[in-house]
Design goal:
CATH superfamily: SGNH hydrolase
Strand content: 5-15%
Number of domains: 1
CATH class: Alpha Beta
CATH architecture: 3-Layer(aba) Sandwich
Largest sheet: 5 strands, parallel
Helix content: 40-55%
Number of helices: 10
């Protein structure tokens, strides 16, 4: 595992070979920032649709949160656009949820963990005091058959987080399972992938102490 991760870290990033699928979404954030520049040193949420659909203003009305989630993105996309989605705001805390789509697209668990380590390195190279909170890949009815690969990715990412006091791992896996140890359907909308209001309430309640503390 260590040899694999080392080789992946020095290899050319996979996203460099992909078409620029997300530029128009990132450009929309650029334009919004020109019209109304967000305050720096706040909290940034970044990642895929779970982040994008999170109504942070409603769940955290007392906190200044910049939501930079984009539907369908993978963790490698957060790395690719890190300057424009994260670093420009010089946040004191970054909350990350990504990796779900990566596994769904067939990426290896180890590749997801490598992309997370790249993300952390990119943040701390420019902003060494910034804290990073990674929300572990959630179990969902739609992707239940891929849960073993998701849990492996979570396990490796958690190990990475344990090496640095500036990085934390937040695991919702057990909290989202029912008596049958399968994902609770009430926490998801009809597609079996995205969180319902009840799911977001659970996540927001557990996450709040981390946001307030920092």
């Amino acid at each position: 595992m260590a040899l694999f991760l080392g080789a992946m870290l020095v290899a050319s990033p996979a996203f460099a070979q992909q078409p620029d699928r997300w530029e128009r979404f990132v450009a929309a954030f650029d334009e919004a920032d020109l019209v109304s520049p967000p305050l720096k040193h706040q909290i940034v949420f970044v990642g895929s649709s779970t982040i994008h659909r999170w109504d942070v203003a409603s769940y955290f009305p007392d906190l200044k949160i910049i939501n930079r989630g984009i539907d369908g993105t993978e963790l490698s996309d957060a790395v690719k656009y890190i300057d424009r989605l994260v670093l420009r705001y010089e946040p004191r805390l970054v909350v990350v949820y990504a990796g779900d789509n990566d596994i769904g697209a067939g990426k290896l668990s180890e590749q997801v963990s490598v992309d997370f380590e790249r993300f952390v390195r990119a943040v701390h190279t420019r902003l060494p005091e910034t804290r990073i909170l990674y929300i572990g890949i959630k179990p969902s009815p739609l992707r239940w058959l891929q849960i073993d690969r998701m849990r492996l990715a979570n396990q490796v990412i958690k190990t990475i987080c344990e090496r640095d006091d500036r990085v934390a791992f937040l695991d919702f896996d057990n909290l989202m399972l029912g008596w049958d140890e399968k994902p609770r359907k009430d926490l998801y909308v009809e597609d079996g992938l995205h969180l319902s209001p009840k799911g977001y309430h659970l996540w927001s309640t557990v996450l709040r102490p981390y946001l307030v503390e920092h």
